[in-house]
Write the structure tokens for this entry.
Amino acid sequence: MEGKRIIFLPIWGKQNETIPQKQMEAIRDLGGFARYGLPVTLFPLTRSAIAFRPDVISLDWIHQYAVSPGWFASLVKSFFFAIDVVLVQLIFKPKMVWTMHNLQHHDPRPRKIERWISKFFASKCSFIRVLGPGIEAVVAEYLELPKSKIISIPEGPFVGWYPDDVAAAQARVKLKLDPADRVWLYFGNLRPYKGVEQLIGAFKNLSKPNSRLIIAGRPFDNHYAQSLKDLCLQMPDVVLDFRTIPDDEIQIFFAASDLVVLPFKNVLNSGSAILAMGFSKPVVAPAIGLLPFRLKSQPDLLYRQNEKLEDALIRLEKFDNEALAEIGRKNREEVLQYKWEDFAKFLLKIASNGE
């Protein structure tokens, strides 16, 4: 494994760098070479291969290389990306592994072009990685691949990446919350598919004295931010913090909360759920995608397709704060079972022709 070269694309940027940085750190700890590829959008695979001669290229999202909101731009980008895939394999012959975080881009994209380039790229990869068991058949069907090409390797936890040394009482002082409040937290980027509007409505219908809802994260545009603000008019028990939350402040929101609510409409995986588990929080979420796998230690807080979010929130009434804290402790134990080195070892193995 020593000296095997693995590059990661695309470059996620400051907001989302936790996952690739943890993964590259694990590879280096095992004696491999790991770094980002080149920050380019035209022929990123081939140009990165010229620069670094990788044994394996590990990709996450390919959307920035292959699709755009408009169909013509998507067609052009997909055409050049397909050429890039063929060129890099023809000239340099690296193994390619694609981690599927979701089947499709969450924003509107030309779906036929998106699926075509996804299927083409997947056919050229050695493996398609999913982040947990139970969705292999869904991914294989979407990509029209045999299930044998789909591998399940969960992400590790984010524990240790973000500071975690603020006590709950101190965090509540910072956020101007009463010690007796039951605090619900939504944390993460704000986009329509994440169901934040439904959360606000459910909280409004169920709100009781000493209940507070915090919504913390960056809206994807000003229009959506304003729509959320309008929903919260006359709701003084809702706290809106529309920022990209700095790393050293993330712990304040989790320390101050009793539970995390992630009312997603459509998702395969959730970094917010993994983050909440690492901060020892119970999570209310729909039983979709990989959430039942990730949150298997707290099935009572998951709601099914035939249920409303309000039904799950009503069930919370039977849990006192100590019971919620115990669920949170179990969630942390669960997430700590998975290691970043699991995927690092897999990449190094195939880099050594150990498929």
